[in-house]
Design a protein that fits this description.
12 strands, 230 residues
Length: 230
């Protein structure tokens, strides 16, 4: 009887830890990101989207907590709105349920996969999965399913702390071309649309963003964010 009680106690402890741990992991990710009050960064953008000719471009992104973003570019910068400034805080600050999924190695990094189900009706996202590097407390991959724009994936690479802060040096945004409503979900103008050469099924589109020259917590006036993106 004593042995059965100990087994039940162990199982209960494991279940409780599994339920509780995802929120603790996500809280550490948020706390890490909230150390950054503001930053500006140079980005180089390469777009690989079938049927749309988009030249490689450069831009400067400004960010200030909690969610202010401004973009400056010499020409136009075609950027997915979800990827302009990926912030783990945006989704997590809303009501949600977090469920432990599994542990997985991604690009040699041990990650914890967590399913996040938003509980607010007005949220565009139905379900997100975060792969978290629990050593650095950063998100290395996100897969989100939306109500109207299909599923997209964000993969983030961190070469190391920049001035002591973990911010991405590369990002790959992948999406299904036949599901994504590009004009509504992208920032910037579209280039010349190319004709589709055959009737084969549409494929995955990708945007590659390379970050450099971070300036972190140096102070950015609010007036910067009152300027229309250019």
């Amino acid at each position: 009887m004593k042995k059965i009680f100990l087994i039940l106690l162990t199982i209960s402890s494991l279940l409780f830890a599994q339920q509780d741990e995802p929120e603790k992991i996500l809280k550490r990710v948020q706390d890490e990101f909230l150390k950054i009050e503001d930053y500006q960064v140079d980005v180089r953008i390469k777009v690989d989207v079938e049927f749309i000719k988009v030249p490689e471009s450069k831009a400067k992104i400004f960010f200030k907590q909690p969610d202010k973003t401004h973009i400056e570019s010499e020409g136009f910068a075609m950027l997915p709105k979800e990827g302009i400034n990926f912030s783990p805080v945006g989704l997590l600050k809303k009501k949600h349920t977090a469920i432990f999924d599994k542990e997985e190695i991604i690009n040699g990094i041990k990650t914890t996969s967590i399913k996040i189900i938003p509980l607010e009706d007005e949220t565009e996202i139905i379900l997100s999965t975060f792969w978290v590097d629990t050593k650095k407390n950063v998100v290395v991959k996100v897969e989100s399913t939306t109500k109207t724009n299909g599923t997209f994936t964000i993969e983030l690479k961190y070469d190391g702390p920049s001035n002591g802060f973990n911010l991405p040096t590369e990002m790959v945004f992948s999406f299904n071309l036949d599901k994504m409503n590009i004009p509504k979900t992208w920032s910037g103008d579209l280039g010349k649309k190319k004709e589709k050469k055959d009737s084969s099924p549409t494929t995955i589109g990708q945007v590659f963003i390379y970050y450099s020259n971070y300036k972190i917590n140096e102070g950015i006036p609010d007036s910067v964010f009152g300027v229309k993106d250019k």
